[in-house]
């Protein structure tokens, strides 16, 4: 058993007879009244996100997890296939349980949280940034911008992101997988 002081991003807990992963939290200590923790929880079974507030000191049932490195192999319909980099065992997960799957290219190494009680995978953690090649974008036109103008671009995985006007087809760009946004252009 843990308490609200143990809450951190990525912690898996049992709540309402389901397993949830904490994706955001905020400790709040108002001037009047008791402290509390505002959280955003994502169900690892359905992918549904809910908001919940725990009072300070509230007991929460955490789920013991192990982390393993897996390599993304390929997609087949709505299923994604991964291989454990240690023992070469393969697992299949539904696309909806993988945050940022649109930025995952074949060969990408991700971290998968596995429930130690039943050995089932709970969630997939993408690297914070990935480097992808731009496969399609319109050319930027000089002179019709004010500041921070962007244009849509398609990357090699098929995902669409907004990029600055100076990005061209064939450029490699660094993307933030959590926000799904452009970070920088990679020079080769």
TrEMBL record:
<dbReference type="InterPro" id="IPR008991">
    <property type="entry name" value="Translation_prot_SH3-like_sf"/>
</dbReference>
<dbReference type="InterPro" id="IPR015365">
    <property type="entry name" value="Elong-fact-P_C"/>
</dbReference>
<dbReference type="Pfam" id="PF09285">
    <property type="entry name" value="Elong-fact-P_C"/>
</dbReference>
<dbReference type="Pfam" id="PF01132">
    <property type="entry name" value="EFP"/>
</dbReference>
<dbReference type="GO" id="GO:0043043">
    <property type="term" value="P:peptide biosynthetic process"/>
</dbReference>
<dbReference type="Pfam" id="PF08207">
    <property type="entry name" value="EFP_N"/>
</dbReference>
<dbReference type="InterPro" id="IPR013185">
    <property type="entry name" value="Transl_elong_KOW-like"/>
</dbReference>
<feature type="domain" description="Translation elongation factor P/YeiP central">
    <location>
        <begin position="67"/>
        <end position="122"/>
    </location>
</feature>
<dbReference type="GO" id="GO:0005829">
    <property type="term" value="C:cytosol"/>
</dbReference>
<comment type="similarity">
    <text>Belongs to the elongation factor P family.</text>
</comment>
<keyword id="KW-0648">Protein biosynthesis</keyword>
<dbReference type="InterPro" id="IPR014722">
    <property type="entry name" value="Rib_uL2_dom2"/>
</dbReference>
<dbReference type="InterPro" id="IPR020599">
    <property type="entry name" value="Transl_elong_fac_P/YeiP"/>
</dbReference>
<protein>
    <recommendedName>
        <fullName>Elongation factor P</fullName>
    </recommendedName>
</protein>
<keyword id="KW-0963">Cytoplasm</keyword>
<comment type="function">
    <text>Involved in peptide bond synthesis. Stimulates efficient translation and peptide-bond synthesis on native or reconstituted 70S ribosomes in vitro. Probably functions indirectly by altering the affinity of the ribosome for aminoacyl-tRNA, thus increasing their reactivity as acceptors for peptidyl transferase.</text>
</comment>
<dbReference type="InterPro" id="IPR013852">
    <property type="entry name" value="Transl_elong_P/YeiP_CS"/>
</dbReference>
<dbReference type="InterPro" id="IPR011768">
    <property type="entry name" value="Transl_elongation_fac_P"/>
</dbReference>
<dbReference type="InterPro" id="IPR001059">
    <property type="entry name" value="Transl_elong_P/YeiP_cen"/>
</dbReference>
<dbReference type="GO" id="GO:0003746">
    <property type="term" value="F:translation elongation factor activity"/>
</dbReference>
<comment type="pathway">
    <text>Protein biosynthesis; polypeptide chain elongation.</text>
</comment>
<keyword id="KW-0251">Elongation factor</keyword>
<feature type="domain" description="Elongation factor P C-terminal">
    <location>
        <begin position="130"/>
        <end position="185"/>
    </location>
</feature>
<dbReference type="InterPro" id="IPR012340">
    <property type="entry name" value="NA-bd_OB-fold"/>
</dbReference>
């Amino acid at each position: 058993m843990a308490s609200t002081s143990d809450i951190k991003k990525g912690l898996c807990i049992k709540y309402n007879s389901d397993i949830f992963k904490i994706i955001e939290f905020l400790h709040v200590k108002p001037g009047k009244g008791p402290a509390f923790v505002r959280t955003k929880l994502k169900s690892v079974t359905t992918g549904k996100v809910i908001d919940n507030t725990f009072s300070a000191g509230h007991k929460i049932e955490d789920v013991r997890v192990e982390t393993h490195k897996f390599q993304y192999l390929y997609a087949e319909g709505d299923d994604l296939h991964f291989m454990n980099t240690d023992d070469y065992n393969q697992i299949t997960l539904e696309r909806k349980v993988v945050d940022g799957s649109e930025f995952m290219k074949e060969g990408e190494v991700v971290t998968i949280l596995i429930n130690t009680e039943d050995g089932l995978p709970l969630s997939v953690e993408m690297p914070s940034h990935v480097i992808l090649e731009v496969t399609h974008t319109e050319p930027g036109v000089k002179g019709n911008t004010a500041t921070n103008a962007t244009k849509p671009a398609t990357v090699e995985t098929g995902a669409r992101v907004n990029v600055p006007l100076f990005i061209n087809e064939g450029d490699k760009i660094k993307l933030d997988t959590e926000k799904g946004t452009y970070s920088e252009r990679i020079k080769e």
